[in-house]
Write a structure and sequence with these properties.
The chain has helices at 2-7, 12-15, 26-40, 44-61, 67-77, 84-95, 97-101. It is mostly helical. 63% of the residues lie in helices and 0% in strands.
Length: 112
């Protein structure tokens, strides 16, 4: 959050351990949490940046096992009255619902 306040951007790769294969996809979880921080501290530009990152990351990480963790973060930490990230997450789910519906084991899986 402090990087964003000074640099007006944030880099998920610098926050997560660089080059760690187990971090693949965790960017979505991070973006959801940063969006929640933007809401908590009333920083609309941080929310917008996190929303943009989440939307972009969702296009490539919707198959990752951590996708469902990111969805849990979105729907448990973002207030119902704040629908922007919820709509984006729902759009990703609906865009891939046929595949995701056949993967119920991913919802409880904690690793790849």
């Amino acid at each position: 959050m402090f990087d964003f306040l000074y640099l007006h951007t944030y880099d998920a790769a610098s926050i997560l351990e660089d080059g760690d294969e187990s971090c693949a996809g965790f960017e979505l979880v991070l973006h959801a949490k940063i969006y929640a921080l933007g809401g908590k501290y009333d920083i609309p530009s941080l929310k917008t940046a996190a929303l943009d990152h989440f939307e972009a990351g969702g296009k490539s990480h919707w198959r990752d096992h951590v996708f469902f963790e990111a969805i849990r973060v979105v729907f448990t930490t973002i207030p119902d009255s704040d629908s922007d990230l919820r709509k984006t997450a729902t759009g990703i789910i609906l865009g891939h619902n046929t595949f995701l519906a056949r993967q119920p084991r991913w919802m409880t899986q904690s690793g790849p």
